[in-house]
Amino acid sequence: QNIALVGQTGAGKSSIANLVTRFYDVTDGTITIDGIDIRTVNQQSLRKQIGIIPQAPFLFSGTIDENIRYGNPEATIEQIKKAAQLANAHEFIKALPDGYETKILEGGVNLSVGQRQLVCMARALLPDPRILIMDEATANIDTLTEIAIQQALKQVLKGRTAIIIAHRLSTIHSADVIYVIQGGEIIEKGNHTELLNKNGAYTTLYERQFAGQD
Q: 174-207 pLDDT, tens per residue?
């Protein structure tokens, strides 16, 4: 399934992602994957199953190839290009003067924020993770890049579990289940249409973002 977490800043959305990846452990209740308590699983083994696309894309000093390869150092160039194609990054990379050998300047300043995010997405997809976590991955990008990511998601989410933390509700229209988080609690859940029909917290969030739009 594709699961979306929405809510105001500080509601607890990113905390849920941090618990799933065991950056810290739950002190009450359990988180299970396929019925297995994740606290009984080796952290390295768990994290090999998870790809994370963060809000602030971080690129290392080096080439685009090296930045994507960080997701799987043993990957071939063909696998790197396939990951980039899934992330809708291949075309802009190919158009660069040195393609995949283009050097990333400090802070990635020679790429746009959107391009950096697409490279980070390719890096996360390279190990072919079973679980994909997107933590506000479209918060700081332009509309065209958001569309590119949405198009990529249609391909990459097939056969995976996805947890999408979103401020822009346009990112999560098609999620199987949307959870509205407030004060660390789930206050509403359902798909987009079901939540709009409830005329509750999700409807309020939606109307604030899309007031005046068709």
A: 889 999 999 889 999 999 999 999 999 999 988 8
Instruction: Give the pLDDT confidence of 137-169 residue by residue, as tens digits.
Output: 666 666 777 777 777 777 777 788 999 998 777
Among candidates 122, 83, 87, 80, which has minimal Cα distance to 101? Answer: 80
Strands (E), the chain: 2-6, 32-33, 36-37, 50-53, 62-63, 103-104, 131-135, 161-165, 177-182, 185-190
Q: Other C-beta atoms within 10 Å of 189: how many?
A: 16
Both tokens assigned to 157: 């989410």
Rounded Cα gap, residues 43 and 199, in angstroms: 41
Overall pTM surpassing 0.90 (yes/no) = no
Residues in the chain: 214
Please state whether 109 falls in left (phi above 0), alpha (psi between -120 and 50) or beta.
alpha
- What the block records as the tokens of 160 is 């995976």
Tell me if 100 sits within 8 A of 75, measured CB to CB.
no
For residues 78 and 84, give the distance between their C-alpha atoms in angstroms, rounded to a whole number: 10
DSSP secondary structure string for all residues of 54-105: -SS----SEEHHHHHHTT-TT--HHHHHHHHHHTT-HHHHHHSTTGGGPEEP
Residue 137 is classified by DSSP as: T
pLDDT tens-digit map of 44-81: 899 889 988 887 778 888 999 999 998 889 999 999 99
**Taking CA 9 as the corner, what is the angle to CA 4 and CA 170, rounded to the nearest 5 degrees?**
40
